[in-house]
């Protein structure tokens, strides 16, 4: 009997539903032929839902997310729909905080044939993971900052509890990547400990966790230097771990190295729950035209398969996650079926069908 996994699906705003549809189709076809079954439960949330109902994340949707094995979330938010305080509708951040999804995982990979603004030296390969703490840091007072006539203040929060969990996750991921032959077993703490006491505290906790993992390499880098090295020598990195705002900025830089947000997947992972979503926004200007790039959403689905397979010891799911990633990479490298953001003219469905063809499930 196949093992069943319940997946809470948030279709998102703008192009969200358009890129979610082929992703679910690919995942469903894989599960039909694999030794597992994915049961999708689509629940409402987002800016469009808020505009209609006054709720951005209904209690029933949060309950469904909490009760699921994993959460698949498409692009959320609309620039034209905001809360009364002027901030954008962002249920994805509410999910992170409520479910304590402290580890924002942002893979950065440049493979042969991929478009990149970098001039890559021969024999070098970029394949690293940026881990962004996703529940506190400078996002701690989101929507609750203090504003007077002459001043505005936001509070950065770093706690020992979350930092310890974050660093345990980072070293565990580095060990897993090394075992798979995809990393050097190196974890870099990215901070600004030379200026802020909060980051000196962050680094101290990192060093304590590093001491428990003597089989792995641990080092430090200031965030400004890291941004420079992303451009000059990104092939040197393996696993990087950093504060929320720093990670928010560096993850977009990492997406730029890969050719754009259209190929940048992500996950937000906690001890018991995980959300998988593309890094890009909802692009309302192209919504409904059938030209959105679905690859980041599909790659996020691949990350979900990998996480579920490792967590529940289902090797077929891990293998399928790898197959999906490699199929997307092949489509990009061949360059025949690319959407406009990648220099082509393919439709959303064209790109998805090309991935299915590589997987032999079209």
UniProtKB/TrEMBL annotation:
Transmembrane segments: none annotated. Its cofactor is Mg(2+); Mn(2+). Keywords: Manganese, Metal-binding, NAD, Oxidoreductase. Residues 6-355 form the Isopropylmalate dehydrogenase-like domain. SMART domains: Iso_dh (SM01329). InterPro entries: ICDH/IPMDH (IPR050501), IsoCit/isopropylmalate_DH_CS (IPR019818), IsoPropMal-DH-like_dom (IPR024084). The keyword DNA repair does not apply. It comes from the Bacteria. Gene3D superfamilies: Isopropylmalate Dehydrogenase. It holds the Pfam family Iso_dh. PANTHER family: D-MALATE DEHYDROGENASE [DECARBOXYLATING]. This is Isocitrate/isopropylmalate family dehydrogenase. It comes from Sedimentitalea todarodis.
């Amino acid at each position: 009997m196949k093992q069943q996994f319940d997946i809470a699906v948030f279709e998102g705003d703008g192009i969200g539903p358009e890129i979610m549809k082929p992703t679910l189709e690919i995942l469903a076809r894989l599960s039909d032929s694999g030794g597992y079954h994915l049961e999708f439960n689509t629940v409402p949330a987002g800016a469009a839902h808020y505009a209609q109902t006054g709720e951005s994340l209904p209690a029933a949707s949060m309950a469904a997310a909490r009760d699921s094995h994993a959460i698949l979330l498409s692009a959320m938010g609309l620039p034209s729909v905001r809360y009364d305080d002027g901030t954008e509708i962002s249920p994805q951040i509410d999910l992170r905080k409520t479910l304590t999804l402290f580890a924002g995982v942002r893979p950065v990979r440049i493979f042969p044939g991929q478009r990149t603004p970098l001039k890559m030296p021969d024999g070098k390969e970029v394949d690293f993971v940026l881990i962004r703490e996703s529940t506190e840091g400078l996002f701690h007072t989101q929507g609750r900052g203090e504003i007077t006539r002459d001043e505005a203040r936001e509070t950065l929060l770093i706690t020992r509890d979350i930092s310890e969990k974050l660093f345990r996750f980072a070293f565990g991921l580095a060990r897993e990547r090394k075992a798979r032959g995809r990393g050097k077993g190196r974890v870099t703490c990215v901070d600004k400990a030379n200026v802020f006491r909060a980051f000196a505290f962050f680094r101290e906790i990192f060093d304590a966790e590093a001491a428990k993992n003597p089989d792995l390499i641990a080092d430090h880098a200031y965030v400004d230097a890291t941004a420079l090295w992303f451009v000059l020598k990104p092939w040197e990195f393996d696993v990087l771990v950093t504060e929320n705002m720093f990670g928010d900025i560096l993850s977009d830089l990492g997406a730029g190295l890969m050719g754009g947000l259209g190929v940048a997947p992500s996950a937000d992972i906690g001890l018991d729950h995980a959300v998988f979503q593309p890094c890009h926004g909802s692009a309302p200007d192209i919504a409904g035209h059938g030209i959105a790039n679905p690859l980041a959403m599909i790659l996020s689905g691949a990350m979900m398969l990998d996480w579920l397979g490792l967590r529940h010891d289902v090797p077929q799911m891990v293998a399928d996650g790898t197959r999906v990633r490699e199929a997307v990479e092949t489509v990009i490298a061949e360059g025949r079926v690319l959407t406009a953001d990648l220099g082509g003219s393919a439709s959303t469905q064209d790109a998805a069908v090309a991935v299915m063809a590589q997987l032999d499930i079209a």
